[in-house]
Amino acid sequence: MTDRCEWCLGSSLMIAYHDQEWGVPVHDDRKLFEFMVLDAFQAGLSWAIILNKRSNFRRAFDDFEPATVARYTKRKVQRLLSDEGIVRNRLKIESAVNNAQRFLGIQDEWGSFDAFIWQFVGGVPRQNHWRSVRQLPARTRQSDAMSETLKQRGFKFVGSTICYAFMQAAGMVNDHVVGCFRQAEVARLA
């Protein structure tokens, strides 16, 4: 029996992400946008692939500054499509630009994206007590609601499964399994 969630084992990068970031409540809009973009790029791929390219994504997407990404031109999209350091998928790249524009609209309306997105868990991280990673859901009632609302606002690549992965990354849910040393630590951060 390990003292970590088994999904991270086998890679020092995945272990570091698990030990330092996964499930930690995030309230910084730029960081929330980063997770939104990365989780969209993960669709159909493994998180390990995205995590291995994360520094390249940060460079390519101007450190995930939403106001900058929202102004990307067709020329910039073409440059991103030729960037071998990231996942070169036109729909995902264009969705990042679109989502940055929608993100800014929510900031204007709500004062911050943080205030908007955390409403889906009532402003407080959900504390789960799974005994095995096999029990972790791919989606929940809350991720369904988030997905539907984001789609209504024009966001792309925000299906319920992507939204749940975002919720895990942003610490809106604590899905560290019972027995993982991070479960109690992350719960205290709530």
Characterise this structure:
This protein has one domain: Orthogonal Bundle (Endonuclease III, domain 1), CATH 1.10.340.30. About 55% of the residues lie in helices and about 0% in strands. It is built from eleven helices and two strands, in the order ααααααααβααβα. Strands 1-2 form a two-stranded parallel sheet. The mean pLDDT is about 95.
Layout of helices and strands, plus pairs?
Elements: H1 12-20, H2 29-42, H3 47-52, H4 54-60, H5 66-69, H6 74-81, H7 90-110, H8 113-117, E1 126-127, H9 141-152, H10 160-169, E2 173-174, H11 181-189
Parallel strand pairs: 1-2
Helix pairs in contact: 2-7, 2-10, 9-10
Main attributes?
two-stranded parallel sheet; 190 residues; 55% helix; single chain; mainly alpha
Report mean pLDDT, rounded to a whole number. Answer: 96
Count up the domains. 1
The first-level CATH class is given as Mainly Alpha
Whole-angstrom Rg: 16 Å
Low-confidence segments:
none
Strand order of the largest sheet: 1-2
Biggest sheet layout: 2 strands, parallel
Quaternary structure: single chain
Helix % is 55-70%
- What percentage of amino acids are in beta strands? under 5%
Which fold does the CATH topology refer to? Endonuclease III, domain 1
Describe the global form: globular
Output the helix-strand order.
Answer: HHHHHHHHEHHEH
Number of separate strands = 2
Structure class = mainly alpha
Query: In DSSP terms, counting alpha (H) and pi (I) runs of 4 or more, how many helices?
Result: 11
What CATH architecture do you see? Orthogonal Bundle
Q: End-to-end span in angstroms?
A: 26 Å
Superfamily (CATH H level) name: Hypothetical protein, domain 2
